[in-house]
Structure formats: structure tokens, C-alpha cells
Amino acid sequence: MEFKYFSHNGRLLPVSEANVPLSLVEYSYGFGVYENIRYANGVIYFLEDHAERLQESARTIGLEHEFTDEFIKNSVLELVKSADREAYNLKVLLIGGPNAAAAQLFVMCLNPLFPDRKIYRDGADVITVKQERAFPHAKTLNMLESFLSYRSARKAGAYDALLVNRAGYITEGTRTNFFCLRGKTIFSPPEKDILLGVTRKAMLVAAAADGFELVYKNIGRGELADYDGVFITSTSSKIVPVRSVDGQMLNAEPPEMLVRLMKVFGDFLDESKGVLN
User: Exposure of 219 by Cβ count < 10 A (0-12 exposed, 13-18 middle, 19+ buried)?
Assistant: First the structure.
């Protein structure tokens, strides 16, 4: 089903009028930032956190604009009122201009790409690629490297590609955050090297409340078999177990503590009503 409306600088307009001029240099050069937000059963998940990260992404790349957190959130809320659907994703797109007043804010509804349910039962296959993002803390429109890496993963029949930096450590997926698990200890790459995902943040809050501990550590490709499990997180997929990397089988099925964490996080999402305290 197609959506009828999108939001441009706070105004609801028909989707048929959505356009970005080819002459807009800032867009064609990727001078913009974005957020993907989950909506389901009347709940906009972690809107406050997504608005804050959009602002942080803009600051990181020097994108000046005049949109406040409240303006961004109200634009999302107004668009949600126009969409008669139970579940979808919202994309918030902030495109820079030659000055702050020329920046543009778009909000649109998208049909989410949910993983096949069997992936949660059996685990996902991923590959690794040597790749680094220029601005790890900014969710920018400059996604060519991630796009090519993800395309390589799909051609290989994999769910995603994990990025390996020049030091040989895994940082994140093309559209996911990456973790290892041993017992009730979660291992994450250092925060300076990764995008601080909103789903990642929510998962860690839920995990801590259930007694899981977090350790920051550089993780090499050759170390993965030393852990009980590997998993990735994202807005649409929540927690996805990883069963193989570059064809090397890690787990025939998700380990017990990862299954527990998946349930803990699912319960947390149901109980949180889309708000992180």
C-alpha cells in the first residue's frame, strides 16, 4: 500500500509532489543526514532519541539549519496522523543548503523490510568487507561504501556485511550495530568507531536491567569463534543472531543467553511505549 502524504519543512503535501531538484548540489554530494524510526501499533519508537541523534549528525558534519528538536518531532507526529497503517518506518531526511535558512527537512513513511522469521530461529549469514565510514557518529547521506558493501553481501546470499577497519577490527554492519556475547557479557566495539544506534542504545538499557554487562573491546575477525554468540541490531530487525561469517559457521542455533536477550529486548519494547528513560 502506498502512502498519501509526506512532510516538507513541517507542511503535509501529497507524495506526488515530493521531489529533490537535480541542481541541488548539497543533495547530490551527500550533504545531509537522516534517521529511520519504527512505528507500530500506535507507538513511535524512541522519537526523542532519534531527533537528538539527527541533530548530533548535523553538528558532526557542520550542517547548519533552523529546525529544533520540537519542530522535528512535531513534523513526525503530524505525518503519523495521516497514515492509516499499523506498522511502517518513518524516514527523517535533513538536507543542507548554502546557509541555515536554506536547509530542508523531509519526513516520509516507508514500508519496512522485515527479516524472514527463520533468521531469528536459525541465525543470519554475513560477510566482512574492508571499509570505514568517514564520520562514524553521523548518519549521513554519503552511503556509497555501505551501499556497495551491502550489495556485495546480497550477491553472496548474506544478510549484511560487517565493516572491518584498517586495524583489522570489526566495527559495525552496513546498516546494523555489531556485538559478541559470552555468558551474560556483551562485547561492543569502542563507541568512537561506530554509529551509536538508537536500537543499540535501547537494547543495552534492556540488557543492563536484566543483569547483562557491557565491555568495550576491539574485536578481530579471527576471534569470533571464541565467543558464545554474535549478533547485530537495527531499527527494523531488532536483534538478529549471526550464525556464520564469510562462510565460517559459528552457531547452529542461537546460544541460550542470546535467546534470553532477544526475549528481554522484545518485552522491553512492548513495555517501553517508545520512550527511553
Answer: buried
Give me the amino acid identity at 168: G
CA-CA distance, 185 to 217, in Å (whole number)? 12
How far, rounded to the nearest angstrom, does the alpha carbon of residue 203 sit from its chain's CA centroid? 12
Contacts 24+ apart (CB under 8 A), 251-255: 251/123, 253/121, 253/122, 253/123, 254/120, 254/121, 254/123, 254/229, 255/181, 255/228, 255/229
User: Quick one: which of 107, 104, 105, 126 has its CA closest to 115?
Assistant: 126
In single-letter form, the type of residue at position 136 comes to: P
All three cell numbers of 1, joined, read 500500500
Closest to 62 measured CA to CA, from 109, 111, 13, 100: 100
Residues 181 and 228 sit within 8 Å (Cβ to Cβ): yes
Complete domains list, the chain, with CATH: 5-110 (3.30.470.10), 117-271 (3.20.10.10)
- Specify the pLDDT at position 113: 78
User: Which residues of the chain, if any, have pLDDT below 50?
Assistant: none
pLDDT at 1: 56
Model confidence pTM above 0.85? yes
pLDDT value at residue 2: 82
Q: What is the pLDDT of residue 69?
A: 97
